[in-house]
User: Fold this.
Amino acid sequence: MKVAQILKAKGSDIATVPATTSVAEVVRKLKERRVGALVVSPDGQSIDGIVSERDVVRGLAEQGGRVLESTAANLMTRSVVTCGPDDRVAELMALMTEHRIRHLPVVADGRLAGIISIGDVVKNRVDELENEAGALREYIAAS
Assistant:
């Protein structure tokens, strides 16, 4: 299965924040949107970085509560690993494992087109396995 098929099923809604957003607001938005990462973008189409729950926890460990007054720009990962709509889910699993990341922004034609999480990848894989098992059961029953 390809990334485009996952996005078609889940939608292409992307939670973004500008780099100037306070970390306190980042935390509120993570909770409100029930997501683990926000793409840092000035316009919802380009990517300046990504800020995740992990980034917030690391910031808290290093700076304590005053990190909440900081900005997304100070916590975000600037070197963002991305994928494209034609990438295969198996490739994403390897990419996420290799880079130890849980979120991959999807870029199409140089623009932000969606985001894939490890949860999306796992759900897709479970669905594939269930379909394969069902097909095998039908094959065995028909034999």
